Structures are given as C-alpha cells and as structure tokens.
Amino acid sequence: MVVGGAVAIGAVAVPAAYAATTPPTGFVKICKVGASASVTGSFQFTVTGVKDPVTVPVGGCSKSIATTLRRVTITEAARSGFVAANIAAKPDGREVSKDVAKATVTVKVPAGGVTSQTTITFTNKVTPPPPPATLRVCKVAGPGVAKGQVFKFTVGSAAINVAAGSCGAPITLPAGNVTVKETATAGLAVSAIAVTGVGTLVSSDTASGTAAAWSSAACPSTPARSPRSTSATRTTTWTR
Fold first, then answer.
1. What whole-number distance in Å separates Cα of residue 149 and Cα of residue 111?
2. Of the candidates 81, 110, 119, 167, which lies 20 to 30 Å from 72 by C-alpha distance?
3. How far apart are the first and last CA of the chain?
4. What pLDDT sits at residue 134?
5. pLDDT one-digit tens code per residue, 132-149
6. Which domains are assigned to the chain?
C-alpha cells in the first residue's frame, strides 16, 4: 500500500517446506592397529569433507569426527617402511568399497550420535623385503664350438660351469650389480654378450668376456634406473 507517498512492503513469510535446512550430522572414527610390534608411531588420514589431515597413533583412535555427508572416503597417507594389511568398517554393512593396496575405503555414515558412528580400523604391517634377484648364465655355441662343450664362468665370486647350447641353474643374488666373466678358452673368442629378461646390461667387454649386469628391483648404485621385477630370471648369453 502507499502511505504518505511511500511504499510500505510487508514481510513475506517463507513456507517451512522451502526454508533452508542443515543436513543431519553423523560421525566417523578412525583406529590404527599394527600387525606386529614393529609397527609404531602415528599415521595420517584424509577424510572427505574434513580440511585437515587426521593423525592417529598405532594402538589408538581418532576423536569422533562429525560429518553431514552420508558417505565418506578415508585414505591413509603413505609412510615409508609400512603398508596397509587390512581395512575394516564397523558396524557390519557400513563398508561401501575399499582398496587395501591403496589404503583407502569408502563407508556409509548414517545420521545420529556417536553411539551409531562408523568406525574404520586400518591395520598396517612392515613393508616386506623384495624377493631376491636371480641370474642365469647361458652359452650359445657359435661357429666352431661343439654343443655340450663346457665353459667356465665367475658370477661375482662364485664359479660355475655352463655347457654350450644350454643354461646354468638360476643363481640368487643380493640387490645391486653383478659382474659375470668367462674364463678364456684357447682358440676361441667371445663374439657377443647380451642380457635378456628383466635384467639390464650395465657394461660389457667381449675381449675379456666380461659383463656387468643389473640384477635388482631396487639397485642403490644405479638410482636412475627404473624399478624392475626381481621374480624373473636374468639370462646372460655369450656367443663364440
């Protein structure tokens, strides 16, 4: 209406059905367990909708974390020397999905108090050592070399014999590079040296019948090399 030349506007009530509402709150709690006494210290976690990382000590739990989300993802930050061994959510039926290898889980968080919260337990173990590397020496019989003729080699400090046209037994080696050398045979000369499989030829010298092969998934002396599996056999071939 118009009052004295001014327009008076009355307040308009907003129906309750259209009023803004805050989603109900639920709670999650993160617990940390060590698979052995060797798992110590604290671990950090990210939680969907939570700004700061959540720190949880081994053998303890976080405080109850309030959230208005009905599903949240919790991910454990990587920590050197340890890996996730198991992730469990309680009560039963709260887990949506999980990936233990990536230390992450998605859970349901129903509305309610701390008595109905979702509890997630991460169990960690010490990172297992890589499997040992193996190397196998093979001998190709080139022109003028009789199949079955035996040749002598040293692999690191070990002495082995390999017959032309065959391979020696796999040799277990520590992480790092290893030098393989063929003992000279009168009237014969090494014509080629090659490494196949998952190993790497670091260097070779056909004149002396020597090769240095990388035989590790994590070789400290050659950090620029990419990681390789240590489960396959390295084959070093000498051709005469």
1. 79
2. 81
3. 110
4. 81
5. 778 888 888 888 888 899
6. 24-126 (2.60.40.1140), 133-239 (2.60.40)
